[in-house]
Every structure is written in C-alpha cells, then in structure tokens.
Specification:
Elements lengths: L1 E7 L19 H16 L6 E4 L3 H14 L6 E3 L8 H9 L7 E6 L3 H9 L12 E6 L13 E6 L7 H5 L1
Length: about 170
C-alpha cells in the first residue's frame, strides 16, 4: 500500500508588493499553523518517510517546519520545481515517478493543482484545500507508477480551523 499526504503551504504574506509570487514567505498565521498541523500528525504517529515540496519560499518554509516537528531528516526533503504552478496532471506525473522504496510520502504544494489532484484521485467531496490543509490518500498498490485517477481512498482531511480530531477520523 502507498500513502500520500497532500499538504497545501501555509498562509503567505502579501505585504511586500516587490516580491515575486515565488519569493513570498509565510505570514504570521502561516508560521503558526504549519507547526500546529505537523504536531497533529505527530500526535497520531503519522510520519511520512519523505517530503517532496515546491521550492517556492512559502512551501519551503512549510516543509521545513513539518520536517522539524516530525523529526524528518533534511536529506528526506526534496524540492521539486515541477510542483510549483503544477496542474493535477503534472502532479500525478511526479507522483508516478516517486521511488518505490518509500511507502509514505508527503507532497507540499499549491492550489489549484492540489485540490484538483485530490478531486481526481479519490471521491473526496472536497471543493477546496485551505492553506495548511492536509489530505491523506491510500492506494492499494506497491508501486507509485500505478497511482492514477480514481484509484485512491481518502483517509482524512484536516485543516487549521477544523474542530475534528484526526484520530477520530481514522478510528
């Protein structure tokens, strides 16, 4: 079985109009929410083996905070330019190339690509992945290459303002 945790980067800071979209950092709320959401995973012993992230600053900061909270080594964080501004098709192509030695990978990126990917991979009933939102999808395969549209099973959906505990969703 393969497990994919999709995470949208934390809330970004729009205060400096001179920064490009790629260079925008997390704002105060994003800096607070990323470690909080990672802690929710840790509290439920949900720890990916690897993180693949967009190299955009806000995604990179989110990935670093998740890795720190979850105790994931820096060598297990991969920054992939293919994640930035990716469509669901682009993201699926990247997922299909994941190394099969990893059973559980977190992918940190951006909307609308992530939300579109979730809608295509499983029957989630979700219309938008909020900033710092997380979705866990399981696939009944031994190879990432086999992941395709409508082959996933949604295990949980969590976001910073959610009042539902992950452990109650997983029970």
């Amino acid at each position: 079985m393969k497990k994919l945790l999709l995470i949208r980067h934390g809330k970004s800071d729009w205060n400096n109009p001179d920064l490009s979209d790629f260079e925008r950092p997390l704002n105060e709320r994003g800096l607070k929410n990323a470690p909080m959401m990672a802690q929710r995973l840790l509290d439920n012993n949900i720890i990916p083996q690897k993180i693949v992230s967009s190299p955009a600053l806000r995604a990179k900061q989110t990935a670093e905070m998740f890795a720190k909270t979850l105790g994931i080594a820096d060598k297990e964080i991969q920054y992939s330019k293919e994640v930035y501004e990716a469509t669901s098709t682009d993201l699926l192509g990247l997922i299909n190339m994941f190394d099969d030695q990893y059973k559980y990978i977190a992918l940190i990126g951006h909307n609308p690509g992530l939300t579109d990917l979730i809608l295509h991979l499983c029957d989630s009933g979700m219309y938008n992945l909020p900033t710092c939102g997380m979705v866990m999808i399981h696939f009944p395969f031994t190879s990432w290459e086999m992941v395709s549209y409508e082959t996933g099973s949604l295990k949980f959906f969590d976001f910073p303002k959610s009042d539902t505990e992950i452990d109650s969703i997983l029970s």
